[in-house]
């Protein structure tokens, strides 16, 4: 399977982020998360007599819905600043790639090797969030007309719930328009659980033991100095 990258661009939010939301601290939990990206792939096999003739239009719709959804999920359009433990929500945008795959999606899904290392060619290759977009999406077109979208989100910036909500919101915006999306996410974890001046090897259990955070039902103690 050969995957050829056709284009690469940054998709900025469709509306600028207001000044009061330009800087967002990560939480102490996110501070301890590994500086990696979490990949996801969604497959869309060709159906009926549609042989991918509208894939160019589909890509444009994905781009448009991505720009619109980034206005709600504005940290994913910013940049992570390691030394400040914060996200500069500066509207630089998410990265968007278009790729051509020299094979049939239905045939690839039936191959045993595709279930392991081969499928990761459909996902953007990003390794650390510093100075890189927190979110990257790759729109893969197959010869049969099928499509696969691969995405990578920085684990330190977006947990599984946030990414899942983003995917559902973007899909709804793509189908119905952003005006039909009524859920407006919040990002309060950095203020509720602010980052700590702690060694990089510290674990969540270490924070609980030190009293920096509390288990459910326990009162928070002051961080010892």
Automatic annotation (TrEMBL):
Belongs to the plant acyltransferase family. PANTHER family: F21J9.9 (PTHR31623), VINORINE SYNTHASE-RELATED (PTHR31623:SF124). This is ACETYL-COA-BENZYLALCOHOL ACETYLTRANSFERASE-LIKE. Keywords: Acyltransferase, Transferase. GO terms for molecular function: acyltransferase activity. InterPro entries: CAT-like_dom_sf. The keyword Acyltransferase applies. It holds the Pfam family Transferase.
